[in-house]
Amino acid sequence: MTQFFLRLLAKDDQDIQQAQFRAKVGKMSGAVGILCNLILAGSKLFVGIIAASVSITADALNNLSDAASSIVTLLGFKMAEKPADDEHPYGHARFEYLSGLAVAVMIILIGFELAKSSVEKILHPSAVEMSLVTGCVLVFSIVLKLWLWLFNSGMGKTIHSTTLMATAQDSRNDAITTGAVLVAALIEYFTSWQIDGFMGLAVAIFILCSGMNLAKETISPLLGENANPEMREMIVDYIRSCPKVLGYHDLMVHDYGPGQRFASIHVEMDKNEDVMACHELIDDMERECLESHGIHLVIHYDPIVTDDPELDRMRRIVVSILKVRDERISIHDFRMVMGKGHTNLIFDISLPSELVGQEKEIKEALEKALNDLGETTYHTVINFDLLAFNS
To answer: How confident is the prediction along the chain (391 residues), in pLDDT tens digits per residue?
Structure first.
């Protein structure tokens, strides 16, 4: 079924890579979600009122919130496709993240209301009227939610959308929740144990946890999270494959929403290479990264010395001293300026986050170890980076 919808939306395989196709998929998924969840909410609300079941009514309200969430998702994709303007030169793609955050807030609010209703049912229990109609509605809900899970998963994987993947996860959770409601109704029907309120409370807690997890997932890219490992590996593998590249560091990726990712990286090349040839190669690398991976990459050119044995020796000594403190520490942009009375060692250190705040101590310990060699007096000029940008 997912492939059928994709064939309707995409003219060819190339169209799948376009931002317009992404918006079409997001809006289609939102529309399907609205329709399915309204059907489920209406049927469950009807059965829940007839059966006097707070857990079924709670599940109906959960489906109603899912329909509202689908509306927000649809609007988010619609607004995310707006082109860049003077006030927002990086586009509006982050609306997709904002829509996910709005969905999370709605889910959390619904969860609190359901918890309140369930506690009241626990304190003042009443019988649940189980019938064939009730059972059929709940089974139908489970089947439809499992289909929505597969549908949104397929759509989300196609366009690499965290919002649709979260929606798919929510549909799967709903299927599990409804299954729990059905079990509670059957247990009460066959044993007369009134556990409906307790099951409703369990459903509410489950909804609250889902909402908080979804909020965490959507807030993280808005705060400026590190690039996912797959993207970093894709960029780094491409940089490594290019001619004349000897090394790289300081890879930073800025996410302005799906399809609007900007990155910068420092690329090391031999200082003896022709500068114009290196500049042309860097231009080609930036262009290829945009065309093939959709990432606006800016490359900083770092010429490095490759034919100075003394520089290489001192670099190895500095690395060995730092590795004793923490194996994860690395250095780059290493330079050496020798004078009559002392030698300046100038370089950057990539520091694990756990060692942030210990920069002064690390610098003093390194200088002491270097000066204990007895060769000359060493001074270090160090710029500390986070290891997260150089892993």
So the answer is: 555 555 555 555 444 445 677 777 888 888 888 898 888 888 878 877 877 766 677 778 778 877 877 887 788 888 877 777 788 877 787 787 887 788 778 778 877 877 887 888 788 876 656 677 777 888 888 899 899 888 888 888 887 777 787 778 778 877 877 787 788 778 877 887 777 778 778 878 887 887 888 788 778 777 777 767 788 888 888 998 999 999 888 888 887 776 678 889 999 999 999 999 999 999 999 999 888 877 889 999 999 888 899 999 999 999 999 999 999 998 988 999 888 788 999 999 988 888 989 999 999 999 999 999 888 899 999 999 887 766 6
Q: What is the 3-state secondary structure (H, E, C) of 37-91?
A: HHHHHHHHHHHHHHHCCHHHHHHHHHHHHHHHHHHHHHHHHHHHCCCCCCCCCCC
Q: Are 252 and 264 in contact (CB under 8 A)?
A: yes
Contact in structure between 367 and 379 (CB atoms under 8 Å)? yes
For 164, what's the count of Cα atoms within 13 Å in the CB-facing half-sphere?
28
Yes or no: say if 99 and 105 are a contact pair by the CB < 8 Å rule. Answer: no
CA distances from 159 to 19, 29, 211, 288, 334 (A): 9, 12, 23, 21, 42
User: Which amino acid belongs to residue 302?
Assistant: D
Angle 2-9/132-159 helices, nearest 10 degrees? 50
